[in-house]
Specification:
The complex is a heterotetramer. By secondary structure, chain B is mainly α. Chain B contains 13 helices and no strands. In chain B, α1 packs across α4. Chain D has one domain: MetI-like fold, CATH 1.10.3720. Classes of the chains: A alpha+beta, B mainly alpha, C alpha/beta, D mainly alpha.
Chain lengths: 518, 307, 244, 279
Amino acid sequence: MQIALAGALATVVSTGATLAFYEESLPTSMNPLYAQSMVDNRVHELVLDRLYYHSPITNELTSNVTNQWELAEGGKAVRLTLKKGIRWHDGKGFGAKDVCFTVQAMLDEGTTSPIAQKQRAVFAGCEVEKDLVALVRFTKIFHNPRERLGFQVLPEHIFEGNTAIPPDHPFNTRPVGSGPMKGSMGRRGVAFEQVDNAHHEADIDKMILQEAQDPLVQVRTLQNNGVQGIIAVPPPYRPEVAASDELALKSYDLRSWWFVAVNPNKAYLADKRVRQALNQLINRNELRQLSIGVKPDEQNPPCEFISGPFVQSSPYYNRAVEVSPNSDKDAAFALLAQAGLKQVGGRWQYKGQPISLRIGIKAPLEIEAPDLLSQIGNQLSAGGFDRQEFKISVDEWNTKVLTGQSDDFDLLVGKWSFGLVEDVNPLFHSRSGDKGNLNIFNYNEKAVDSLLSQFNTARTDTQAQDAYHALHELLASELPYLFLWKLDTKSAWRTEVRSNTITPYYYWTVFDAWKFEP
Amino acid sequence: MSARWLRPAVRLGAALVLPFVVPGLITGLIWALPGDPASIICPPELCSGTEALAERWNLDKGPWHFFSSWVSGALTGDFGNSWRLQQGIPVAELLEESIPTTAALVSLGLLLLILGATGAATRWLPAKLDPVLQAVGLVPAVVMAMSAAAALTIGYGVEQYSDQANLLRLGLGALALGLADAALSGTVTGVRGLMESERRQRYVQMAILRGEGTLSNALPNTLPALAGQMRARTLHLLSGAVVVEVVLQINGLGDLLWGGTLAQDFGVVLAASFGFAVLSAALLLLQALVEIGTELHVRRSPGGVVA
Amino acid sequence: MGDVHLVKLRNLTIRTHARQLVSEIDLDCYEGRVTALMGPSGSGKSLTARAVMGCLDVDPGLVDGTLHYPALDDRDWYAPVRGQGMRAQRRLLKDSAPLRGSYFTYSPQAASSALNPGRTLGQQLALAIRRRRQPPEDLSRAIRDLLSEVGLAPSDSRLLPSEMSGGMNQRAALAIAVAPLPRLVIADEPETGLDPVLTRGVIELMVDVCRDHRCGLLLISHHQQTVDKIADDVVHLPGVEVAP
Amino acid sequence: MPGAPAGRVNRVLPASLAAAGLALLLVPGFFAPEFLSEPDMANAFAGPGAVPPFGADQRGRPLLEYATQGAWVIALPSLVAALVVMALSTVGGLIACAGGRHVQTVVQIISEILGALPRLVVILVVALVLPRDGRGLLPIALTWAFLSAPGAIDEASAVAARLGGSRFVEALRAHGFSRPRIYLVHLVAFNLRPVVVRQGVETFMQVTFLEIALSYLAVVSNQSSFTHADSVQSWANLLDLGYKVVLGVHSGHALALGLGLVALVAVTAVAVTHAVRAR
């Protein structure tokens, strides 16, 4: 039937020189200052240049736009010399003025951007010393300051020097960048066009980003050569892709891990023994099997359990802390009893009141892990807790959950992806100023705070590592979040797309090397 | 005013206020949302300058100020910029694209209904067909649209938004709109019922004996009722357009409204609802004109009789 | 009886599957003469009148009889219909349509409900006048004349049937009937719904008008006195006995 | 043309159909489980044979649970909406007979504006304004009812007008009937009943379709459902699962069940309309 339907229309399938791929969604904004999702980050990588990035090969801090750098003002500033001949997509020259404009735009209170907000704690200002020389000042001395220079440079001339950049600026949809591709967003997708430049020479001329639909439709369209790639193939559909020799599954390393945030402000969840009990009630093996479809005995599964806020491949992951793949009801019940909860008619009560857990999940996660919410619900219910289940839209997640305004929930299932630096401060630090600004339930623990600042003030990698190992251990017993797993992300590309190295997190960092031979 | 002019007059009045009633209603609802509108767009916990934004978008001085400044903008064709859906794109630009698309979609769907109505009125369409139409009408528009969308995507792939594909999209959408949710069958049975009951009127029988045509006698008298029915149907199509456009990814008003509402892009939501209200008002206007026209037609003096 | 022979109906027999409606009726109409068709209610007066105009709509309907319009030709209009059932009768209805409203016209009973409620008297007259063989130059004048003939004011042409009295409607119906200058006017119980005085008025008016226009009149009525007074020929329909 | 007795005879079949349909739509909801049962991958996409009566979903959970949960979501709100519309259109009919011209004018003005509102636009905005715990089909159904009331009122008052409006009442008064009897029995029971009930069932059907549409839109755009708890599956989920048959998924039985349920609603509606039609 599918064949019939597709066949009826397949006659017009185009395999022209345009490379088309499915993204998880349309970008929220093509302006990095208003980035909200991984989709945004990936698109910005194509259209703009970050000052510095980690080379996927050497993992060295590299730059496409700077020639050299030096510490200045006793380490509180960095002097950058930019490459000659770099042009913006509209032909204007790329220079120090743009770097400084970007810094000033981030510092301008009129730029109502969460990202700028965070950067204000990092940057003190910027000075154009020569056309191609900019002096970037920091608020304090940072261990390896260039790590902080991962922001994309914006074109000063487009904003006419006005450093207050509002969310409804036309640039945010039709940007002028300096990256390998010129991009413009429409209602259904983003059209990219190759632009020659001193520092980029992409091989692919035209590219189209299309909004993901039903994953199954995506896979079928890919098989039908309607599109050439899918950025994220949900695990249930991977076997079918892997089976086809026209398609290739490619790992996309997002250092991201899944969690269940626990609301410690609820009296019955305040006691960490209750949180530990919940952790014991959850059977990760069963969850993984029923939701993602991973057999317990599967070799190198797409989904590896974690016991703390880092992925196992990270140097910060504390291997001494063990994961609990299966549930242990007896241990859990013992803990709950110790915490003063009573079981009446098989349901847990706190101070005579029956407990009904309100569990929420960021809705799109159910594409990757279908039914995860109801499976967690089932397990907790089997453990004696009533529950209500809620799906939370991306929009609400960003504006309510991440701002710590979702106290009506008991448990929230989410996913955390590291950016440039593996910084978990926003998740666990008590909210104050720029600290803990993604701390979902406003979890507040002095010991945790101090370990986090230990990491921030670390001068050497070993110091940083020790701080995070200790943090990992502490959080594993504190459990403000139940740590589930790292679910690896896989892209699918048709074999006509060659030498397509996918870089961690930013995906398109080495796009210039990509080839497309239909 | 004599009773026979009252109805059309009221319709005309309604048609004039409607385009502003709907956005007004929605403005009210926006303020009914928990949290003040500006912080919905940009929560202070996330970003500074929420006040600046509120001022920029006239959200700072309460609903009336917002609404009035919106209306004065709208009257000059300035609907502001989208701040979520298509950041920084003038909403007017989005409207320009969407209104014709939706109008086309609905008109195509309507064409189907008009054909059905004509068939029923003139007895070309045998009543035997009604059960078939009704059976088809049982399928919800969503299901038809879903399947069409899947087929289009798989079939056209990267070309799925090419002009050809979009044309097909429009056609399939109109078909779903016209056939599903009992739109066509309802129209056919409705019109047939109306015309048959009129045909049974004694004056029509007598007209036959006078050698006059049935339709020429019955039609003018049923026209207002028919116009009413068709307007109701068209409104139904307009509503259905939202679902069909979203599912079939047609860049129409409904899709714009849906996207805007989900992203809480108030500018877009207001503009889209305004667009819908304008289309709906146009229908009211049309109906009023038909009624006035019929009334004048009835009252016109034959060959200019001077009384 | 030297006048022009308009209708020659012989042996008309119509029945439904259940019963005989009319049987073996002979009827003739002549120019300038009034033929009355009388009989008790349900005896098939209206049915006969309609049959004269070629309107048969019962099943199986016409089982026997012949119909000629000698003033036109010597064709037997019933020939293709006799015993042929509904379809043939519908064909006859179509074939005879051109005659209705020109060769003969119909003035219905209870005119108030028989006139198009959505058209002013003026328009209905205009429609009828346009069916004349030579439509007049001055339509409005023709309308005025007709109105005054039946004793209505020119201003009445702007009224809808619902805005006129029963008597006015009956006069209007008559005006509409004679407007196309037909050879024969068929008046179906013009007295229905009118008080005796009005009845006499209307019927006398009808006779006068027909005489003026030199057309025949087939008057269907059960008003003995009137008929006695004005009819040249009378056809009596018997009460119908139910067939086995 | 059937005489009165024949009419009564014809009424028996639709009436029993209507009763059966309503029972099938309203009763199972009360037996709906709060949550779907545990997955059983062995039965994934099992047909009605393996998992009676309707088969199973991609996780081997019986589709029966979808059907009953969906019925639970739809039944009461649609019923309430239908009753509201019926009440309002009855009032409209009564006003046409009893109310003075001014009352009728006011009613007309209100219904003109209400009736011209693009329904789904209002519905969408209402749906998104509702606080999470206030979410459900009922408020949406009520909004729909009030938006579709004008049409119903129009039709009812047209029927009353055809009867002759206030003259109809006077005439019956002359026959010595009491006002309540005239209004309740002659007007409502004898004359308005068919149109009012038809309006009601139409609303019932429309609300059902609306729920399916809204639920589906929520599914495709990764939204929390506007019309029911997220742990509940509506008929839209059946259709969503079912339509994948065109993508080569073995979910034909889900599509059949979904469409069957929709058909059941429609058939019931038709049956009710016929059961109450005027003699």
